[in-house]
Amino acid sequence: MHKNQFRHAGSVRNLSAKGCLVESIIRPFTGMQLTVHLHIPGETQPLSIDNATVRWSGSAGIGLEFLTIASPHQDRLERMIQQLQPKTGPQ
Predict the structure, then answer these.
(1) In total, how many domains does the chain have?
(2) Of 4, 15, 37, 60, which has the maximum CB count within 10 A?
(3) Residue 10: which of 27, 26, 22, 28 has the closest Cα?
(4) Which domain covers residue 28, as residue numbers?
(5) Above pLDDT 70, what percent of the chain?
(6) pTM for the predicted model, two decimal places
């Protein structure tokens, strides 16, 4: 592990193609750059976000913006978001 690296697990909420909310007890500073690994139930490999930044941090958790996502991971993220969307039938 490098000097300025640490790992922390948190629960993801409000996932979108541009970012998410992470429920966490840690409070990183706004502007901090992170690499995020999303562990998806039923999949062996985590979805990797190469570069995310902390947009806010408070009692509700941490607001992350995804800045750089490699193509294969971007495709997986988009598929996962589609699967999470509520299904609506004909009106």
Answers:
(1) 1
(2) 15
(3) 22
(4) 11-84
(5) 88
(6) 0.81
Quote the tokens at residue 70: 């490699």
Report CA-CA distances (Å) from 63 to 10, 48, 76, 91.
12, 17, 21, 34
In a domain, 58, yes or no: yes
E runs forming strands in 1-91? 11-13, 19-23, 33-38, 47-58, 61-68
Q: What is the pLDDT of residues 13-52, one digit of tens each?
A: 999 999 999 998 888 889 999 999 998 888 889 999 989 9
How far apart CA 13 and CA 83 sit, in angstroms, is 14
In a domain, 43, yes or no: yes
| Residue 53 counted as domain residue | yes
Contact 39, 46 (CB under 8 A): yes
Contacts of 34 (CB under 8 A, 6+ apart): 28, 51, 52, 53, 54, 64
